[in-house]
Amino acid sequence: MSSIVLENIRKTYGRNAPPAIADLSMEIGSSEFLCLLGPSGCGKTTTLRMIAGLEHPTDGRILVDGKPIVSVADGLFTVPEKRNMGLVFQNYALWPHMTIRDNVAFGLTLRKMPAAERDATVDQVMTTLGIARYADRYPGQLSGGQQQRVALARMLALQPSVILLDEPLSNLDAKLRLEMRTELKRIHAEAGSTIVFVTHDQWEAMTLATTIAVMSEGELQQVGTPDDIYERPANRFVAEFVGNLPINIVERDDGRSDALHAWIDRCLTLFAVDGARVASAGIRPEALRFGSLSDEEVTRHAAGQGVIVDIVPTGGSWIVELDVAGHRVFAIATEHPQVTTGEQTHFWVERHHLHLFDRDKKRITL
Length: 366
Prior knowledge:
The protein has two domains: 4-241, P-loop containing nucleotide triphosphate hydrolases (Rossmann fold, 3-Layer(aba) Sandwich); 248-364, CATH 2.40.50.140. By secondary structure, it is an alpha+beta fold. It starts with a strand and ends with a strand. The chain is built from ten helices and 20 strands. 36% of the residues are buried. The longest helix is centred in the middle third of the chain and has 18 residues, at 174-191. Helix 5 links the parallel strand 8 and strand 9 (194-199). Helix content is 28%, strand content 29%. The chain has a six-stranded mixed beta sheet with strand order 7-8-9-3-10-11, with helices on both faces. A five-stranded antiparallel beta sheet has the order 2-1-4-5-6, with helices on one face. A five-stranded antiparallel beta sheet has the order 14-18-15-16-17.
């Protein structure tokens, strides 16, 4: 399968408009499942469309398997149909007047594939995706999940070297999303295709991708494995964007001096960290420990104290909200918490779970 390299890609809409993509460089390995993750308007779909050939970059180069398909400086632009890439849109883009079989066969028909070979390919891919029984129906007669499978089948029938997916699961309910995530992982494992998947849903990115590229305001923030992105965020944006329950952030240079700030200072001392470099600290809710401690344990863990404000069951886990000197701090417990609302409790964090950031909001490596 194909590798993709983006070199110094820039995209602007209008002479005086701010760049939608600003100097983006990234390598997507062969057979990699890469998720472009970020909030709406960050440039992820624009990036995907430039790879597909539906958008022209303002500057930069795009290479596939080491060969340029786009080079603004050289005036090179390979048209989409020559790139051997399959694209699935957010709205599926099925032909409503064609049967499911004809929709799946559409690209092969345009390629003038012999009828017998085309029919065999269509039958095989529809069987693989479990939609063969709907072959004579029309898109309007299918559910959202079934239409999604048809869109995938139409694209897979072309046997592209690169699969491009633009938020294809956003129109599905939770159950169908889970089914389609499983289907996409199976397709990737079996076909070994290079996949670029656009999403704003961090859960999709974490469960699907082998590599995640986090974007914000047209700039690449971090590229790494799901574990890297979650456990070693490169900056405050990544730390705050990724996480089912937002990370707890304590600002150390906001001029406040209270129990929560004093607790962070004690942690930095205990962990032998130079506090002068640290502008803010983050603790993910599942990493925050709480409960009753002895005086010796309080000293050993540099523990703080807070009051339990609320305990919310979420099915298999509990969200615990604490008040610490007027700050709201959240923890997640995987067993039923042995505390009650209004009770005072100790809380602490292990060294490897403390995320520290400097005044430029970049990660400080412990």
